[in-house]
User: Fold Allantoate deiminase-like from Melia azedarach.
Amino acid sequence: MAISSFILFCYLLISLLSHAASSYMYSEDRRDGLFPEILREEAVTRLNELGKVSDAHGYLERTFMSPASVRAGDLIRQWMEDAGLRTWVDQMGNVHGRVEGVNASAQALLIGSHLDTVVDAGIFDGSLGIITAISALKVLKSTGKLGKLKRPVEVIAFSDEEGVRFQSTFLGSAAVAGVLPVSALQISDKSGVTVQDALKENSIDIAEQSLSQLKYDPASVWGYIEVHIEQGPVLEWVGFPLGVVQGIAGQTRLKVTVRGSQGHAGTVPMSMRQDPMAAAAELIVLLERLCKHPKDFLSFNGHSDGSILESLSTSLVCTVGEISTWPSASNVIPGQVTFTVDLRAIDDEGRESVLYELSNQMYQRCEKRSVSCSLERKHDADAVICDSNLSSQLKSASYAALKRMTGETQHEVPVIMSGAGHDAMAMSHLTKVGMLFVRCRGGISHSPAEHVLDDDVWAAGVAVLTFLETHM
Ligand SMILES: [Zn+2]
Assistant:
């Protein structure tokens, strides 16, 4: 499906379903054959247990190769072995668990997510995908079907996705995908410890030459799937526990610097000021208007591109999250203001058009106010579109799982966009990717208030199990 029609479809679906029942009714008498003791009770217990493995007292924090991350890795490894998987830790600290199935040389299905967290994190982000995969494989072990998989299945708990410690996301999955630059090993954390040192502290010796050995051979891999909490409100809004991810939004980060004339707050008349603070405020409001109503701003040189506009009007999100001023005193007109812009959209061409229009308009406004401004592009990531076949398999598996759990025919499983980055982005450089989102309460994530219903954890497990059963 084209992106534009997908978004239109999604929009219609949301409009239709927002009136539907907001709670999803799992049937109490349908527990038989759905392994609630493994996929629900044990999975939830393990999520809580892993959620207690923290470097901080009183809140959850696990960063790349920290003591808590290593303990979390050990726990995950035990659970992998309990599910009948052969395990190892690679030179980037990723924890692997693999079962060969009937044909060890067939292309492998990889299932993963990350074991690191943000600071003061919730217990589901990352962990849910790892535990769901292990639990589904444990069910296959308990029913004697693990050895009947027609291809190897490998669960990977990636060591770094959030990038809290080294400000460099995807250290784990980018290494497996072969897209981690060797320079990444020399990035330092706040105390001057490099990635290479952090690994060495944990008896992992990685040299620049050996980094390339971590890369999987694309010919040995069939595809990658990831289960993750949605981290947004759409599934809750439509009243669905599971959703299939159509793609992950592309992203640009800017640093905007506005320079004016620093002066005394009491003596410089308003008409004579070149105030970068007031200018920055105008630019921020401009950004908000452009991102809320891209159709009013983008002309594409008179050739209106309907599909891009449609895509932008439903997927474009822009944020100013950080602002600083110099000298930052209450009685001084600032000399300089800098702020960040985080801009995301599922359509890369559309994102470029917005950036082009934004910079034009920003420079015009700055000129009008006689301040100078500069825009620096600090980070760019293209959108990743999930593989359509893999997505439809995940969709069928989710549909079947929900039908098994409720005993009723359901609405079609929603297809949604991810505004957040995931390991699947890095893994898309290696193989085809697919993602399944799980509803979370209030769309809240990166917070201890993050919550997934026990029944939804179960639904995700049944969906992965159903997906694996198609690989028998
Ligand atoms: Zn995550």
Summary: The pocket of zinc ion is lined by residues 114, 125-126, 161, 228 (CB under 6 Å). Residues 1-22 have pLDDT under 50 and may be disordered.
